[in-house]
Specification:
By secondary structure, this protein is an alpha/beta fold. It contains 29 helices and 28 strands. The strands form 6 sheets. Strands 4-12-11-10-7-5-6 form a 7-stranded mixed β-sheet, with helices on both faces. A 7-stranded mixed β-sheet has the order 18-24-23-22-21-19-20, with helices on both faces. A 4-stranded mixed β-sheet has the order 1-2-3-15. Helix 20 (601-617) crosses helix 26.
Length: 963
């Protein structure tokens, strides 16, 4: 018999992927609901809050018997990872039935069972799977937990168990004993004894009265102290059982560091660690399993719900060393559910194939950010939390009432009302948590961004309809000066208390971001990120600074390019040194304006001190001077601007400052190599000479300027009656890292009376290394660009321009009576700058040199140059890559060639770079070398090892193969 004739998959499809709700849905009981009420026990639960009689369902959509469409963010309490009636899951059932295989087989094996086991094991982290065995339990998750309890007790010989406040592990005798919810078990007598409850990290309602990680750390201290105290009254437990993300307890995620420390404590104490991932496992949190974020390995893992692909299934997976069972010690008739094994295996295959774990992370962040935006215009949301597509929204009294612990007072009645109002608008959500005041979101992994938009719209309307909008904040008046004070730092005792609090919180948020970073970019879709940022309300809702800092960490910091990550290797963009980061706090807080001494007293002397030191490092002579800039672009502009004015003064005594460009300005020429930075042309344009004023000279194969061609170009220009006045030498071209022959260029400049400007933005830091002879001739330059935020490892922005003769700063000098008066005795740095307001960036260099010093910085650069050669050799020795140039500084130019002759290699390498970026694999550079599209490693992080580059090349190769 052809089963497809009986079971038509097309009939399950719904008309739309998004409900269209013109008016509130009718939720009065229909005939089916009344029949259910008549026949079913009072124990029924969900229909009381979700009065639905379901007619059919597909994907994330449910249609009731009235034809009303809903988006389901409950999904069988997390069971339906792929939503309702996924066609491949349905087909797996059909195939299983058509094959004539049994429905259930006790614990006898079948090919279906073997396939399922292999899929489960491959879904686990290798470190766990390699030493694990699997146990099939009864069809419910509670039976898996019961089995875990028995296994732990018989293995350790101890009877005590430890669970956590807010825990939920099932409704059987043993699992209820470990349940946090007291009302549910209030009428139960004779539950399993000897269970002790421990504090779970819950920032909003911390039992220690602390917030964030500090509360979590205190709970760890409590646990470890209790277990180490021979007077604690608690016998050492056989096991500690914990949900990495508490579900029924209110969607409360355990921090990764907390799980790591709990694992350490249990190992040291000889206690088994049981992880209950019945609800939070199988991709829901943006990881295959929630515990993977912490990088730990449990002793026992409990699984159910989604692992069966929507059908009843529960498992234990545990270390083989604790497999202390005797045959038949924990058994059950329905542990051989073959249909669930078929659907479970197919589910895991689809999740991997369709990258649904990655989607859960991105879609979950999109949903979370949307709910946080809703929280900005209502007063009833105390916290939005969770991981991936497992999120919770804690509802509190809109009037701001506090309980006796000073926490926002829960509002269970409002929570039920919001749930009902959401249902009337086409959204199915569950509630849970303390006092039932947490709205819970557990949508299938396949939910789309379009469907999430509907969820957010329905939730927003439901909240506004029940709790109302946020109270209107009255405009600030003159009587609110006390409130204004909280936004500023003040002098005097207590004036910086808020400042301290803000910086401490910011540091903690950034610490969490850095410690949680596993990729150079989060992988969030650029359009999604743009939508999130553009949806920030800058006008109508001012938030507490604590909230702004937390949200900035979640949205901005976590979705930034992480320059510290080993695979962020595209641009001249270095990880900043710690003393320089510390200096940024001084710079921002002191807010010195580097134009006049009376605005920047000590800062003025610091900048001059650093400039004098730098002029000495480059051996520019006693008359040298300089000024700090925003970076290479401004430094190059200033160098060439001074060259232009010097040239006009030298040629004809013309004063460009007063009289504008001379009549011969169209004949003035700047010479540089074809590999020089684009800012040479940009500067010529800004100076009114036009890009045509730049003469680009051919380069050697290594990217350096051809000296013979340069001499010929100068002579040709002069013979044509043109006026070459400036020569730009490059110490480190952007792509090749080539350093021009500066000594010969200096001789040519002297011979033809040209101003020599050296762009040392990239390679100028060589002056501190044992390779500084490669900069020979830089000491003869008239001006030098230095870029500290490159290989001096300073935070952006930080640069300087140095002059061999400080008298040439006169071409920039303008006096202002309010600022730098002619009779001033104290120094005014504005005399040397094209900027009036300028940051105190010199402090970063000062503190860096005091802390790190020239020897260490030079050693870092030497190491980078040597490592670059090693990486080039590594690339050259792999058949799938082609090295396109020998490195000159710290860039490696190469491309992926693979093994397919008919591949468009240029297009493939473009795709590799973009896919690597948006998927968070790597941040790679892209350029063109000899007409070929090239990938680029810019190696700037001295902390990397060759293993980092081997892994990076492997990842690029794997990405290329998928493309």
């Amino acid at each position: 018999m052809n089963m497809n004739n009986v079971f038509d998959l097309d009939e399950l499809k719904l008309a739309s992927n998004i409900p269209v709700v013109h008016e509130l849905y009718d939720l009065t009981p229909d005939e089916l609901l009344l029949s259910q009420e008549h026949y079913e026990s009072e124990v029924r639960s969900y229909p009381r809050r979700l009065p639905l009689a379901i007619a059919k369902a597909a994907g994330v959509m449910v249609e009731d018997t009235r034809g009303q469409l809903f988006i389901d963010c409950l999904a069988g309490a997390g069971t339906l990872a792929l939503g309702y009636n996924h066609p491949e899951i349905n087909q797996a059932i059909i195939d299983q039935l058509q094959a004539g295989l049994p429905y259930q087989t006790l614990d006898l094996t079948t090919p279906t069972k073997d396939k399922f086991i292999r899929e489960v094991m491959s879904f686990l982290p290798d470190e766990f799977a390699n030493n694990a065995c699997i146990q099939f339990c009864g069809p419910s998750g509670a039976d898996a937990v019961e089995a875990a309890i028995k296994l732990a007790k018989q293995t350790t010989g101890r009877n005590t168990m430890a669970a956590f406040h807010g825990a939920y592990h099932g409704m059987t005798n043993g699992t209820m004993a470990m349940m946090g919810n007291l009302s549910t078990k209030s009428r139960r007598q004779g539950l399993m004894s000897d269970v002790h409850f421990l504090p779970f990290p819950y920032s909003l309602r911390c039992p220690f009265g602390l917030k964030g990680d500090e509360g979590a750390k205190q709970s760890l201290r409590y646990i470890e102290r209790m277990l180490s105290d021979d007077e604690s009254g608690v016998q050492k437990p056989a096991a500690i059982i914990v949900e990495p993300v508490q579900g029924e307890g209110g969607v409360i995620p355990a921090p990764a560091f907390w799980l790591q420390e709990l694992r350490r404590i249990t190992k040291e104490q000889g206690i088994l660690l049981i992880l209950d991932e019945i609800q939070c496992g199988i991709g829901k949190t943006g990881h295959n399993f929630a515990f993977e974020e912490a990088g730990i390995t449990p002793d026992i893992l409990c699984l159910s719900k989604a692992v069966g692909g929507g059908l009843p299934m529960s498992l234990l997976i545990f270390n083989k060393s604790i497999d202390t069972w005797l045959p038949g010690e924990h058994t059950g008739t329905f542990r051989g559910n073959q249909l669930a094994m078929a659907t479970g295996a197919t589910t895991l295959q689809i999740i991997r194939r369709d990258n649904l774990v990655d989607h859960a992370q991105k879609a979950g962040q999109y949903l979370r950010e949307g709910i946080e935006r809703i929280a900005q215009y209502t007063d009833c949301i105390a916290e939005v939390r969770g991981k991936g597509l497992m999120l919770g929204v804690e509802i509190v009294k809109p009037n701001g009432a506090k309980n006796k612990f000073g926490e926002p007072e829960a509002d269970p009645e409002l929570t039920v009302n919001i749930q009902r109002a959401a249902l009337e608008r086409g959204l199915i959500i569950e509630k849970g948590g303390r006092q039932g005041s947490v709205l819970r979101f557990l949508p299938p992994l396949i939910i789309t961004f379009e469907q999430i938009d509907f969820v957010l719209d329905a939730l927003s309307k439901a909240i506004i309809a029940t709790a109302g909008p946020a109270k209107i904040v009255e405009p600030v008046t003159a009587n609110d000066q006390d409130d204004w004070r909280s936004y500023f730092i003040h002098t005097g005792e207590g004036g910086a208390d808020q400042f301290e609090k803000v910086l401490n919180q910011t540091t903690q948020v950034l610490k969490n971001v850095f410690e949680g970073t596993t990729a150079p970019y989060s992988g969030l879709d650029p359009e999604v990120l743009k939508s999130m940022i553009y949806n920030i309300d800058l006008d109508h809702q001012q938030l507490p600074i604590e909230t702004v800092i937390e949200q900035t960490g979640e949205l901005i910091a976590k979705n930034s390019i992480m320059v510290q990550h080993p695979h962020c290797i595209a641009h001249l963009h270095t990880p900043p040194l710690l003393p320089a980061v510390a200096a940024e706090a001084f710079i921002a807080s002191l807010n010195q304006s580097m134009d006049s001494w009376d605005q920047a007293s000590s800062a003025t002397f610091v900048e001059q001190k650093v400039v004098d030191w730098l002029c000495g490092v480059y051996n520019l002579g006693e008359q040298a001077d300089g000024v700090f800039t925003s970076g290479g672009t401004q430094s190059n502009l200033m160098g060439l601007l001074l060259a232009r004015d010097w040239a006009a003064d030298t040629i004809s005594g013309h004063n460009i400052q007063k009289d504008g460009l001379p009549e011969y300005a169209s004949k003035m020429r700047i010479l540089c190599s074809k590999k020089s930075h684009f800012t040479v042309q940009k500067s010529a344009s800004l100076m009114g000479l036009g890009e045509h004023a730049v003469e680009c000279v051919d380069t050697n194969p290594d990217g350096t300027i051809k000296i013979a061609a340069l001499i010929k170009t100068v002579e040709t220009l002069k013979n044509e009656g043109l006026l070459p006045f400036a020569l730009v030498g490059t110490a480190g071209t952007t792509d090749h890292g080539a350093i021009d022959d500066l000594a010969n260029m200096a001789d040519i400049a002297e011979q033809h009376n040209l101003w020599l400007h050296v762009d040392g933005a990239y390679g100028g830091a060589l002056i501190l290394s044992r390779h500084k002879t490669r900069l020979h001739g830089i000491e003869k330059a008239d001006s030098v660009s230095v870029d500290f935020h490159k290989l001096f490892f300073q935070p952006i922005s930080c640069g300087a321009v140095l002059l061999k003769d400080k008298e040439n700063f006169k071409y920039l000098l303008h006096h202002a009576d309010y600022l730098n008066r002619e009779d001033d005795l104290l120094p005014n740095l504005v005399d040397k700058s094209i900027a009036t307001t300028k940051r105190f960036d010199a402090l970063k260099v000062l503190m860096t040199m005091q802390c790190v010093g020239t020897q260490a910085l030079g050693g870092m650069y030497d190491h980078l140059l040597g490592q670059t050669q090693q990486v080039a050799d590594l690339v050259n020795n792999r058949n799938e890559f082609e090295l396109l140039a020998d490195p000159a500084l710290s860039t490696v130019l190469f491309r992926y060639v693979g093994e397919t002759a008919d591949t468009d290699t240029d297009l493939l390498n473009k795709k590799i770079r973009m896919e690597a970026l948006v998927k968070g694999v790597a941040v790679l550079g892209e350029t063109v070398v000899d007409g070929k599209v090239a990938l680029k490693f810019t190696i700037l992080n001295p902390c990397l090892t060759m293993a980092d580059f081997e892994l990076l090349l492997n990842n690029i190769n794997q990405l290329a193969l998928t493309l």
